[in-house]
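debug: dumping io for the single-chain case to check the tokenizer round-trip. Nothing else runs in this session.
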Amino acid sequence: MLGPVILAASRSDKMRRFVSAAPGTKQVVARFIAGETVDDVVPIVRELSERGLEVTLDVVGEDITTVEQSHAARNAYLELIGRLKELGLGERAEMSVKLSMFGQSLDGGHELALANVRPVVEAAAEIGTTVTLDAEDHTTLDSMFAIHEELRKDFPQTGCVIQAYLFRTEDDARRLAANGSRVRIVKGAYKEPASVAIQEKPEIDKAYVRITKILMEGSGYPMIGSHDPRLISVGQELARRAGRKPDEYEFQMLYGIRTEEQNRLAAEGHRMRVYTAYGTDWYGYFMRRLAEKPANLLFFVRSILTKG
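debug: decoded output
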């Protein structure tokens, strides 16, 4: 079980330094990270849009330690939104934000994160798009859901993410489905204890299906975040049974993973959104991508050995 080991390493400064210095890291990171700056990512947004794909953009970074860093994260998203406005790409690209970047774990972090994320949500609405609040580890979720509820009072299109492996998620899904929220369902990519999360992959998959059914039968907008062909097929069937039209739900996949499947779903008339991360603080995001799939780790190791 390499996944939990890699997730633990994602919090290690020593491992961060080692991975960053490894000869093959840059090649592998480029597979999952669209670049380091807004100038890097804007052409990718345009190219994906021309292929009939939609985008959600994540300025990577987390575990900040100062208020100044939280303001810098806010400003990075405001800069991104400004560029999307200039290029007329607002309707094709939404934003995904981690509230930890906006100061959630600092003293007074709940209020700080809300104050930082609100202008981002406002600016996104002004260019015809929206923001989704990413889920992080289970200790942050009550704050995230409270901020989500507060933002939806003025911006009901604000989305949030739920994680199938957490025991609490079916109840969260029922509440969100009933109040008409935009909800992305993912399996979960943080190292969580057995007291709060399912540990066995087959059971996580079963929970994912149950939760997807709840969302499809509700009044909200489900976003199926998965690369698993079985779960994608199940999502399509549950949407059909619920009588949903193609524009009443969507699929989401990560930039650089299963590109042909992304194109296929879009060509068939499904809404297909590509989760596209960029920025310099890529380490935590990158390590979670390695933990999710052994093939990603093997690809990384081969690159190190080849370049070493």
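debug: round-trip ok. The two ends are 26 Å apart (CA to CA).
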